[in-house]
Design a protein that fits this description.
Blueprint: E1 4-6, E2 9-11, E3 34-39, H1 47-58, E4 62-68, E5 76-78, E6 85-90, H2 120-128, H3 135-144, E7 150-154, H4 159-171, E8 177-182, H5 197-213, E9 216-219, H6 222-231, E10 239-240, H7 257-262, E11 269-276, H8 283-291, E12 296-303, H9 307-315, E13 323-326, H10 334-338, E14 343-346, H11 353-356, H12 361-368, E15 373-376, H13 380-389, E16 392-395, H14 400-411, H15 415-431, H16 435-449
Helix pairs in contact: 8-14, 12-15
Length: 453
């Protein structure tokens, strides 16, 4: 597959953007440009998709986030910050609907792709019709979603239907360009560790075919972009759109929302975990680590399959006042909550390429709030970011003793040192790691694909 690069990102000539990767000038008589951000979860909300949608709206698009219907969620809602952005949730339909996880709890995260194949008919269907869990959603989108000029597909569960929708949109007279947003290297993750190798190789071939049909590829950091360029034999790396947060400055007085919500005394220091509550997040090890420190509590803010288990730990006398689980908060409110903590923790084991190369929201959310971070020592990309500007510490995520050591190295600094570390966190996000900076190449790419009038 060939590709043509240029200012503003990479456009694949193998897709539909035209020779040289630049779409033709838009007819001023055409209706306003329309963009759809496809999110294979309930978007309640999905922060990266919401940031992309808001930026597209500011660039002059009518924007819809097309998500999956979830229990207790409205079919349609407007973004409070930008009411021109609408989220619509489509209920899976057709004969494959029963395999959808759309109505399960915890639908803020992606629909579960195939991990362990299992046995019997379900296993065969999951293999042949992979990814089976979203096919009912795809069917409804093909039937009900109005055509658009741009489809931004968030992840591997959204790109196949985005390609179908783009082709239908072109037949209807719209531009129908498709951007594949590789939000993680999912086929190199623990989710697929138990898939038989021949089946996994087939999945990889299918993804490469989707890549060849897409008009452009974006991803979340430079190391993943380099990996994809090599794995997919791209002529140029994908455009990088970091998961950074919008610039934020802490108000005075400094926020103290966590202590107020959790009933934690003012003198007790807070270690914060943000995000999905589940296995392979280092949550057990982090809970043990804080017990080795004087007057420190672990506070978890998030959602996921371990939420009730962690609330039970809150009630365990051994962890009384030292372990508190709080519900998730809206992405717009995360900085103020994160700024209430003394340090954040990302104790994920580096058991896969996807984990080693990851730079998840929680990293950027913490730095944006001026909160230092402790990360697992083998999370190489996050570690390099922290070490470059002394923004936290590293530890063995499997060893509570070493996690306690790293946490103490941040928490036990003197007042001036702590203030300086917080100031460095804020400075790098204001100067280099902000959404305002990160989104510029992406918007340049979009203008090449779907030029404004």
């Amino acid at each position: 597959m060939s590709s043509a690069g240029g200012a503003g990102g990479t456009v694949h000539a193998g897709g539909t953007a035209g020779a040289g990767g630049t779409a033709e000038a838009r007819d001023p008589a055409m209706p306003r440009r329309r963009a759809v951000v496809l999110v294979a979860n309930a978007a309640a909300p999905y922060s990266r998709g919401l940031r992309v949608a808001r930026s597209l709206a500011q660039a002059g698009f009518d924007v819809e986030i097309a998500a999956v219907a979830g229990r207790g969620l409205p079919t349609e809602e407007r973004d409070a910050r930008d009411p021109t952005v609408v989220t619509r949730r489509y209920r899976p339909s057709g004969p494959l609907r029963r395999w959808s996880t759309a109505d399960e709890a915890g639908m803020r995260g992606p629909l579960a792709p195939l991990g362990r194949p299992g046995r019997g008919l379900d296993a065969a269907l999951k293999a042949i019709l992979w990814p089976l869990a979203v096919r009912g959603w795809w069917r409804t989108l093909r039937r009900d979603l109005p055509p658009a000029d741009l489809y931004h597909a968030c992840g591997i569960l959204a790109i196949p239907v985005a390609l179908d929708l783009g082709a239908a949109a072109r037949r209807a007279g719209r531009a129908g360009r498709v951007v594949y947003d590789v939000i993680d290297v999912i086929l190199e993750s623990n989710n697929y560790a138990h898939v038989p190798r021949p089946l996994l190789a087939w999945y990889r071939r299918r993804e490469r075919r989707w890549v060849r049909r897409a008009d452009a590829i974006v991803t979340v950091n430079e190391p993943i972009a380099a990996h994809l360029a090599l794995a997919w034999r791209l002529a140029a790396p994908p455009t990088v759109l970091l998961n950074c947060q919008p610039r934020w400055t802490p108000p005075e007085p400094h926020p103290d929302l966590i202590r107020a919500a959790a009933g934690i005394p003012a003198e007790r220091r807070i270690v914060l975990f943000l995000g999905r509550l589940g296995r392979e997040r280092g949550l057990d090890e982090a809970a043990e680590a804080v017990l080795r420190l004087d007057d420190v509590a672990l506070v978890l803010i998030g959602f996921g399959p371990w939420a009730e288990r962690l609330r039970e730990r809150d009630r365990d006398p051994r962890y009384a006042g030292r372990h508190v689980t709080l519900p998730p908060v809206h992405p717009d409110d995360v900085p103020a909550w994160t700024a209430s903590a003394d340090v954040s923790i990302v104790a994920v084991p580096a058991g896969s390429l996807n984990q080693r190369l990851s730079t998840p929201n929680k990293l950027w959310e913490s730095l944006t709030a001026g909160t230092p971070v402790v990360v697992g020592r083998d999370l190489e990309v996050m570690r390099s970011i922290l070490e470059a500007d002394a923004l936290g510490a590293v530890a063995d995520p499997a060893d509570p003793e070493d996690l306690a050591r790293a946490l103490a190295s941040v928490l036990d600094q003197g007042p001036d040192e702590r203030a300086a570390m917080r100031a460095r966190c804020l400075a790098v996000t204001h100067d280099r790691y902000s959404w305002e900076v990160a989104v510029v190449p992406y918007l340049g790419l979009v203008e090449k694909l779907v030029p404004g009038s």
